[in-house]
Amino acid sequence: METSETVKEIRSRTGLNRKEFCQKFGIPLRTMEEWETGKRIPPEYIPRMLAYYTRSIDTDNARNEIRNHYDIVEDAEGNKVVIINDLRFKSRRNIDWNTVEQCLKEYVGSCVQILETSDEIYIGKDFPDEYTHSKDTKSLKGANRHAKANASQIVEPMIKIAAGKTFAPNYEEKHVADAKKYGWYRYDTRFAIPVYNDEGNLCRYNIFGARILIRHDEDGKMYLYDILRIKKETSEPLEQ
């Protein structure tokens, strides 16, 4: 890629127009125009410097976007619920689970601490595939299947509010190597997804319960394996 294209691509990543970008980084507008059009070649360090600073902008924007996707509230009994503010997968039909899997790969390498127990839960490379293609996922229908697809955007806060820790030894042959010695832990968690009326206005939130399945590895760490048994609760929905 030519240097002029590199500079232009870096600017476009920030979402700033040329004037805003120049004001933010103290670059003369005419100079920026000539760099982007190829009339002048910027010094070699300029693209590297801009790429460094815009990575910080990208990270901050991504964190803000993730935060805006959810809120953690308490229901009438004082139990925590993660509320999804906007559905990533709006249609119940034709959910692209490969897209869901790609979204989940953003979590790989993360570590989340559960508030109730202070357990540290790591998210490994096996999680995205298991979440999207497990027997549990394939067995889900209708609203529950749709809920699991959308829960992919709130994995970390669902872990954070998890409660009701239980243990079970490993009985599955496929996990002899990675869970034989320390077994499995399960936690309960809850989340809510928005429901809209025919005019597209938010009218309520439906609450779903789920079980978080954790594999206790021989390295001593606890790894998220799947979020399963997602089921709509019969309790009163949260009103808007």
Structure characterization notes:
The chain is an alpha+beta fold and 240 residues long. The protein has 10 helices and 9 strands. β6 and β7 form a beta hairpin. α1 crosses α3, α1 packs parallel to α4 and α5 packs antiparallel against α6.
Describe the structure in brief.
The protein is an alpha+beta fold and 240 residues long. It has helices spanning 3-14, 18-25, 29-37, 45-68, 97-104, 127-133, 135-139, 142-151, 155-160, 176-179; strands at 70-74, 80-84, 111-113, 120-123, 163-168, 184-196, 202-216, 222-232, 238-239. One of its GO terms (molecular function) is DNA binding.
The helix/strand series, from N terminus to C terminus, equals: HHHHEEHEEHHHHEHEEEE
The class by helix and strand makeup works out as: alpha+beta
Strand content: 25-35%
Largest sheet descriptor? 9 strands, mixed
What portion of residues is helical?
25-40%
- Give the termini distance in whole angstroms: 50 Å
Oligomer: single chain
Number of helical segments with 4 or more residues: 10
Instruction: Detail the poorly predicted runs.
Output: none
Overall mean pLDDT: 83
Total discrete domains: 2
How would you sum up the global shape? globular
Rg measurement, Å: 23 Å
Number of strands: 9
Organism: Roseburia hominis
GO molecular function: DNA binding
InterPro entries: Cro/C1-type_HTH, Lambda_DNA-bd_dom_sf
Protein name: Transcriptional regulator
